[in-house]
Amino acid sequence: MEIHLPSLPMMEILSYLDAYSLLQAAQVNKNWNELASSNVLWRKLCQKRWLYCCMFTLELHGLETWKQFFFDKTWQEQAKTRAKPEDFTYKEIPVEFEIRSHPRYISRHGLTRNGQGKSAVCMITSLNRISTWDIQEGAMTWISPKQPSYIALMTTLPEMHIAVTVDMQSTIKLWDCHNREVLATKGLFFCYQLLQAEFTKDGPIVLVGDILGNLYIFRIPDLHLISKVNVFPYRIDELYFSPQKKWVFLMGPRLHDLTKVFYMSSLLKTSEFSAPVSTILQVPVIRKVFWTPRREDRITLMSLILPQNITKFDTFDMKVEGIRNKVTIQGYLTASFLLAEHEGIPEYFGVSDKDVIVCSTRFSLLLFDINGVRLQSFQYCPEEIWKLWVDPVHVIVTCDDGTLDVYAWEKRSLLLRKCYRVLNRGHQPTSGFILETLCDDVSIILVINNSPNPWCLIAYTLNVCS
User: Which PROSITE patterns does the record cross-reference, listed alphabetically (predicted)?
Assistant: First the structure.
């Protein structure tokens, strides 16, 4: 005899279950299956894991239900973890382009089980053109018409297959790289310094920083100016968005120790705020910044204490506070520690969603909790670590010879598990300087400068694995 509980209490009970438990509940009977497959429950799981999920997310991925999204996204994330070195296809793409025009991913869909997933990048391939490249094929798929002025900066918005460029005449352009057309053009009338596009819950935007410390936010796709704010008395050098785009950390010239964290709603919804809301994090000589993935309000700063040259990690929690109808924000120091001198000076670092800090020195990969307790270490010698990629699922170490070590964050512990090593299979000289490592669900790309020869992209593309 089946027992039928009212739907509302059942939904409340099911809302506390994880994905595995929901699948088990769905096996009880037809009524339980219908409730456990509810879009409301699976969207909640998606939001918990990936923070930002709206109906537009489903449209972008060509899916109808949040249950589909959850399992497709999870499968994509774990594909590289399950893979073996022989599952990667190797391609070398020699391309001539200028040093500030590093390639950026333009593809919006990850690996799919039917092999339809594509990995594509956009880059400046001459002084006056941008082009897109199919990484699997190692071939150029589109090149723009020659532009009247040299293109200096480029960024992309993969969710919409859009590239954004700024040229030497301070003209910003939005390119639809799918339909191969210009969506909007705007003269900026100021000297640019920084360019970045982001997809926020209030819609897609592009941010431009000038040499006077002003930040401009434009709406995509029409380049309507949403807001302008003077951040620093000097230029803005770097900016870092929190995972859900609730916060943006901005940094000026390092010698001036200029930092600010803005509450993004105050920059995007100007009619609701009398002025942009921001605060300063008092940390001198900041070298790197990393927002904790899958958490909205936590940021870790890696700084250098001079003249001793000791590395320090500071973790802050950002909070919105209301005082007499006035919104303010504060950064509260949650944890802090100094790296022992014998550990060396890290060049790169990242943070897991379990608050584990991973950093790389020249010959070591080190793991600490946010209070400085050493958790794990991996030694590299005679190889040298040149680059470090950290995301919520993987850590990828790039060695000086182009070798890649792929690690995965353990699900039930704070540690890293080494998955496999991908050797440099090509003919590019190891004397080349590895400028950058990029990664998505489908590919891992190394950007190598073999001066005076043309630059080269080395791409490892993952084949479909079940």
Answer: FBOX
405 and 421 Cβ atoms separated by less than 8 Å? yes
For the chain, state the CA radius of gyration.
Answer: 23
In a domain? residue 25: yes
8 A C-beta contact, residue 218 and residue 224: yes
Question: What's the CA dihedral at 238, 243, 247, 252 to 10 degrees?
Answer: -10
Cα 386 to Cα 302, 342, 441: the distances in Å are: 18, 19, 22
Tens of each residue's pLDDT in the chain, 466 residues: 455 656 777 888 888 888 888 888 888 888 888 888 888 888 888 887 776 665 556 665 667 788 888 888 888 778 888 888 998 989 888 776 554 457 899 986 555 555 556 789 998 887 789 999 988 888 889 999 999 999 999 999 988 899 999 999 999 999 999 889 999 999 988 888 899 999 888 889 999 999 999 999 999 999 999 999 999 998 999 999 998 899 999 999 876 788 999 999 999 999 989 899 999 998 989 999 999 998 889 999 999 998 888 999 999 999 998 866 688 999 999 999 999 988 889 999 999 999 999 999 999 999 999 999 999 999 998 889 999 999 989 999 999 888 999 999 998 899 999 999 998 877 555 556 788 899 888 889 988 877 666 678 889 988 865 4
In a domain? residue 12? yes
Tokens of 283: 């940390």
Q: For residue 325, give the DSSP letter.
A: T
Distances (CA, A) of 330 to 166, 278, 318, 319, 370: 34, 8, 6, 5, 20
Instruction: Taking the CA atoms of 229, 232, 234 and 238 in sequence, report the sign of the dihedral they define.
Output: negative
Do the strands 151-157 and 139-143 form a parallel or antiparallel pair, or are they unpaired? Answer: unpaired
- Give the predicted TM-score (pTM) of the model: 0.87
Q: CATH number for the domain including 38?
A: 1.20.1280
Question: Structural domain of residue 35, as residue ranges?
Answer: 7-78
What is the C-alpha separation between 197 and 183, in angstroms, rounded? 15
Residue 35 lies in a domain: yes
- Looking at the structure of the chain, the number of domains it has is 1
In Å, what is the CA distance from 306 to each residue of 310, 399, 408? 7, 28, 34
